[in-house]
């Protein structure tokens, strides 16, 4: 009898839900500290589904999972240069644009930027974008270096003379080899987009020279550490540094955090929503991507994480203090100094990883 009821109930649910019955769960894998507090709850309520939301803080970690396959994820968010390599490896499905009506909200110029890495924007949509610069504790840096502290330059983290004076208050680097090495190359006066072996080696030399003064290499821990004064300088991602600033303000602990795009230039990156070919719930994955492209939803995310988005229709809904912050939406003269990421082939990738291991281990 019990079994009978159960089967009847299941059948009713199946008929009521139709195909959607298989789509009651969505598995999302996104960067940490990268979404508004209520975004997932709103999606769950709207679609009557449960979202499993996991986070990472490294493209390399995501890439390993994507290349291994069967990750179980429906939506993932690689940075555009990584996306390109993964598309070439056949990792992602082509998006069904008929299921993404909110694509009309996207800024055509920024989508064209992203298309350099994904022809015709076939496999991915921009989630957020930002820059890789420097976050610092204004008071502590001034205390150690005086008014002349080179806070507008990569010298703050790459000049051994300078960094050695900051070591006691804590200097940290991102664990992101494809971002740290080009930044060091740029500081050394080389092309950050170079793929020449000797240029990478020079970049690694710059990093090795300051390495003794670096407290750790990590790509998310620095948010809290900056906010509570545990560290005083971090090479970091724009929005993450602004989140540290906001956390310090909330805590009322007197810590003042600033973000700078160094005068020598910085990386401008795009993080892209894509659906793995073996995603268990591709229909719901499309619904999710479309939902994120809703102007209000995207504006809520930008207003919360302080990362720029590429959704033109959301801009009127973005807070004035976010929209007008040159560290978040850089003005034209700053944009000229930004570089885009380079897609490395397997050989360059091996070189970068080998050098990075040397830098991290100091050998
Ligand atoms: C969010 C980090 C996203 C930037 N914490 C990395 N592309």
Give a structural overview.
This protein has two domains: 26-129 and 269-329, 3-Layer(aba) Sandwich (D-Maltodextrin-Binding Protein, domain 2); 131-268 and 340-361, Periplasmic binding protein-like II (D-Maltodextrin-Binding Protein, domain 2, 3-Layer(aba) Sandwich). Helix content is 45%, strand content 15%. It has helices at 2-17, 39-47, 59-68, 80-88, 108-115, 138-145, 155-158, 160-166, 177-187, 197-210, 221-227, 238-251, 282-292, 295-305, 320-323, 332-335, 346-361; strands at 25-31, 50-56, 75-76, 124-137, 171-173, 216-217, 233-237, 257-260, 266-274, 338-339. The strands form two sheets. Strands 4, 5, 6, 7, 8, 9 and 10 form a seven-stranded mixed β-sheet that branches. The longest helix has 16 residues, at 2-17. The protein starts with a helix and ends with a helix. The model is unreliable at 1-19 (pLDDT under 50). The protein binds pentane-1,5-diamine. Pentane-1,5-diamine (N2P) binds next to strand 9.
Summary, kept brief:
The protein is α/β, with parallel strands linked by helices and 363 residues long. It has two domains: 165 residues, 3-Layer(aba) Sandwich (D-Maltodextrin-Binding Protein, domain 2), CATH 3.40.190; 160 residues, D-Maltodextrin-Binding Protein, domain 2 (3-Layer(aba) Sandwich), CATH 3.40.190.10.
């Amino acid at each position: 009898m019990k079994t009978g009821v159960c089967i009847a109930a299941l059948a009713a649910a199946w008929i009521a839900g139709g195909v959607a019955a298989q789509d009651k769960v969505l598995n999302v894998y996104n960067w940490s500290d990268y979404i508004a507090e209520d975004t997932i709850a709103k999606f769950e309520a709207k679609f009557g589904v449960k979202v499993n939301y996991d986070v990472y803080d490294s493209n390399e970690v995501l890439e390993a999972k994507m290349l291994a396959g069967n990750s179980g994820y429906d939506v993932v968010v690689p940075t555009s240069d990584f996306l390109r390599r993964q598309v070439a490896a056949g990792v992602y499905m082509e998006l069904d644009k008929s299921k993404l009506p909110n694509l009309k909200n996207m800024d055509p110029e920024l989508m064209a930027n992203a298309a350099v890495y994904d022809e015709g924007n076939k496999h991915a949509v921009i989630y957020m974008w930002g820059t890789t610069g420097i976050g610092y504790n204004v008071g502590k840096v001034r205390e150690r270096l005086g008014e002349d502290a080179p806070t507008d330059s990569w010298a703050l983290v790459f000049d051994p003379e300078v960094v050695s004076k900051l070591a006691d208050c804590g200097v940290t680097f991102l664990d992101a080899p494809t971002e740290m090495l080009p930044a060091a190359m740029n500081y050394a006066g080389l092309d950050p987009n170079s793929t020449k072996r000797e240029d990478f080696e020079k970049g690694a030399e710059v990093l090795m020279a300051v390495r003794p003064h670096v407290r750790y290499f990590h790509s998310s821990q620095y948010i809290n550490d900056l906010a509570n004064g545990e560290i005083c300088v971090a090479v970091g991602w724009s929005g993450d540094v602004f989140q540290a600033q906001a956390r310090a303000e909330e805590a009322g602990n007197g810590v003042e955090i600033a973000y700078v795009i160094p005068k020598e230039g910085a990386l401008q990156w795009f993080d892209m929503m894509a659906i793995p070919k073996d995603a268990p719930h591709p229909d719901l994955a499309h619904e999710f991507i479309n939902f994120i492209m809703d102007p209000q939803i995207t504006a809520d995310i930008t207003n919360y994480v302080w990362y720029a988005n590429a959704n033109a229709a959301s801009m009127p809904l973005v807070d004035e203090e976010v929209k007008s912050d040159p560290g978040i939406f850089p003005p034209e003269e700053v944009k000229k100094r930004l570089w885009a990421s380079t897609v490395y082939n397997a050989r360059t990738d091996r070189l970068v990883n080998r050098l990075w291991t040397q830098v991290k281990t100091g050998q």
